[in-house]
Amino acid sequence: MSKQRLTNMALIGIVAATCLPANQALGDDVPKNVAAAASSYQQAQAAELNEEPKRAAELYELADRLAPSAQALRSAMRTRRAARHYAAAVTHASQLIQRYPDDTQSRAMAESVLDELRSKVVEVSIQCEETCRPVVDGRLSSLEGDAQHSFFLNPGSHRVAAAFETGTSDAQEIDGKAGQTFSESFSAPVASRVASTEPETTTLRYGSTSRTSVDTGSQGREGVHPWVFSVLLVAATGLASAAIWSHLDVLDAHDGYDRSAADAASRYEDGQDRERRTKILVGAASGVAGAALITGIFTRWKTRETSDASVAFAPQLQGGAHMTYRTAW
């Protein structure tokens, strides 16, 4: 077995060992998440060696989102600090202490970063009446729902709000200086009623027509249709599967490469193409998965129906009346 394959298997094993307990609820998706996290972690290490701390931090954060682990979060904190992204570094330090309070190594590293950088950023705490997600300058800063959130921002002016199931609250303006702390409270916006619950009716008379319309609120509905989320989820799953297959294909090509072979040059180029394809698939899968997560937040999961019915009465020559009922759904 090649050295490259052993290195990859060891990396996946390390990430799996640290991430599996936190992802047991994901069921069959755990192996895919762990494999994708290991791939992101490996790319982050390469970016860090190439002195690209910003890209490395983003990839470490992706690995932590796919399969949460203290190792990935510590690396994200370290590289954010190296990139001078102090607010993100302090936020990761706070998350480390909150998520892994009994991890001595994580706590020591996190407290060191907090002692060094906390006075250079702005701390914001928000309290919601119900589960919410923080929104900073018009963008979600966390996909995790909770009634309380604490995060850090760079000094300056910011607009802070909270996203609820019924919509986003009004934003609060803060103008923070280094070392300042802000505490904000938010309430969920009240969902507006589109139509009355009582249907409009007209008295029926001999030889007349009555039209009854019942609107249960289908007009004015907001949100994304569930099929959009479903399509994105299927696409993300397919791309992730293709990325894993492509990565294994690269390893097989590497094992079969022989520098002394006559076709060594063409095999090398082929290997480069396969590796490039894998990176594209990983990036596409990550992007589509992120879009699916965002779409899932704003998806309109419950639909309503509208009926438009009419009843007509007409006299008959033989006496009596004829009734016609029409409806459309």
CATH topology of the domain at 1-116: Serine Threonine Protein Phosphatase 5, Tetratricopeptide repeat
Q: Round the mean pLDDT to the nearest integer and report it.
A: 76
Would you identify the CATH architecture of the domain at 1-116? Alpha Horseshoe
CATH superfamily of the domain at 1-116: Tetratricopeptide repeat domain
Strand content: 15-25%
- Measured distance between first and last alpha carbons: 64 Å
**Over all CA atoms, what is the radius of gyration?**
28 Å
| Quaternary structure state of the chains depicted | single chain
Spans of at least 5 consecutive residues with low confidence: 1-28, 193-220, 304-309, 313-319
State the order of secondary-structure elements, H for helix, E for strand: HHHHHHEEEEEEEEHHEE
- At the first level of CATH, the class of the domain at 1-116 is Mainly Alpha
Task: Report the major sheet.
Answer: 7 strands, mixed
How many beta-strand segments? 10
Give the % helix. 40-55%
Overall structural class, as computed from helix and strand content, comes to alpha+beta
Q: Total number of helical segments?
A: 8
Shape: globular
